[in-house]
Design the sequence.
C-alpha cells in the first residue's frame, strides 16, 4: 500500500475503491474495504500487524467500498451512515451487488472465488454496521480524530472522513481522481455542495474514492467537472436535442480513463451519465433522490 503520511496508508492501484487505514496511538482505523476477496484478507492481515483494528468506516454503500467487510468481521466495530445502512448490499433493479462483485473475480481475482461463500452465508455475515448514525459524527481514537462528515451527492449516505491531525480527508467517490466520474445514480447539485464543504477544510491530502491521491486543488477540478457535465446536458436540452441525441453527443470519454479493471464500461458510464442528467432536466417536477425507501434485502 502507498504511504500518504506517517499515519495514513491507501491502495489506489487495484480494482475497486481505494481502501485505506490510519494509525492511531490506540490502533488502526480502516476506511473502506477491498472489493476483491484476496485483497481484503491481505489488507486485514497487514493492518492488524499495527495493532487491533479500532473501527471499520464505510464512506458509501457502493459494492466496491463495502463488499470486503465480510472479511473484516470481528475486526472492531463497523460504522456507517444511515444512508449506507439502508442500502447495504441491497439488490436494486439495475444492480445486484453480490453478482456484480462475483463478476470481477475471473479476471481480477481468480483465487478470490474460493473465499466467497454462498449468497445466503455471505448475507448472514456480511459485516453491516455495529454503529449507524445520521448527520455527522466524531470518533476520538487515541491521538487521532475522525470527523465523519455527511456529504451526500454521489450517494445519499456519503461521508467524508476528515482527520485534522493529518491534514487529510478521505472523500469516497465524491472525488474520482483522474478517472471517469459515475454520476448516474447521484444528485449532482448535492454533490457540488459536498465539494464546497470539503473545500472549507484545512487539508493538504485528499484521498479519493478512486485514482491517485491529490492535494486540495483537485477539489476544484472535480467540482468544475461536475458543472461541465451539467452545463453540457443543459445546453443539449436548451437546443431541443432529443434524449437519444443528447446521449450520442454529450460524452466525456476522452477526458479520463475508467478506473482500473472497468475499462470495458466506458460507453455504459457515459450514456447513463448523460441520460440521468437529461431525465433530471426534463422531468415535469424537480427531482432529487426518490422519496420512497429503497427495496429491502
Ligand atoms: Zn461510488
Sequence:
Amino acid at each position: 500500500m502507498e504511504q500518504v503520511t506517517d499515519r495514513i496508508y491507501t491502495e489506489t492501484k487495484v480494482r475497486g475503491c481505494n481502501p485505506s487505514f490510519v494509525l492511531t496511538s490506540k490502533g488502526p482505523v480502516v476506511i473502506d474495504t477491498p472489493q476483491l476477496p484476496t485483497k481484503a484478507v491481505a489488507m486485514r492481515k497487514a493492518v492488524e500487524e499495527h495493532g487491533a483494528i479500532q473501527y471499520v468506516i464505510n464512506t458509501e454503500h457502493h459494492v466496491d467500498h463495502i463488499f470486503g467487510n465480510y472479511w473484516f468481521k470481528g475486526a472492531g466495530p463497523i460504522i456507517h451512515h444511515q444512508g449506507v445502512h439502508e442500502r447495504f448490499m441491497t439488490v436494486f433493479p439495475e444492480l445486484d451487488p453480490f453478482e456484480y462483485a462475483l463478476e470481477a473475480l475471473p479476471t481480477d481475482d481468480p483465487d478470490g472465488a474460493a473465499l466467497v461463500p454462498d449468497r445466503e452465508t455471505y448475507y448472514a455475515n456480511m459485516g453491516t454496521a455495529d454503529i449507524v448514525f445520521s448527520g455527522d459524527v466524531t470518533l476520538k481514537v487515541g491521538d487521532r480524530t475522525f470527523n465523519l462528515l455527511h456529504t451526500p451527492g454521489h450517494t445519499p449516505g456519503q461521508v467524508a472522513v476528515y482527520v485534522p491531525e493529518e491534514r487529510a480527508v478521505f472523500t469516497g467517490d465524491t472525488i474520482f481522481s483522474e478517472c471517469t466520474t459515475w454520476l448516474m445514480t447521484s444528485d449532482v447539485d448535492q454533490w457540488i455542495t459536498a465539494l464546497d464543504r470539503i473545500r472549507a477544510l484545512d487539508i493538504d491530502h485528499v484521498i479519493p474514492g478512486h485514482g491517485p491521491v491529490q492535494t486540495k486543488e483537485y477539489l476544484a477540478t472535480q467540482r468544475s467537472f461536475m458543472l461541465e457535465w451539467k452545463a453540457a446536458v443543459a445546453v443539449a436540452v436548451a437546443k431541443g436535442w432529443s434524449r437519444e441525441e443528447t446521449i450520442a453527443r454529450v460524452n466525456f470519454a476522452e477526458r479520463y480513463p475508467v478506473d482500473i479493471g472497468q475499462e470495458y464500461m466506458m460507453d455504459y458510464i457515459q450514456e447513463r451519465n448523460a441520460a440521468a442528467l437529461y431525465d433530471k432536466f426534463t422531468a415535469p417536477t424537480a427531482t432529487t433522490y426518490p422519496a420512497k425507501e429503497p427495496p429491502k434485502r
Summary: The radius of gyration is 19 Å.
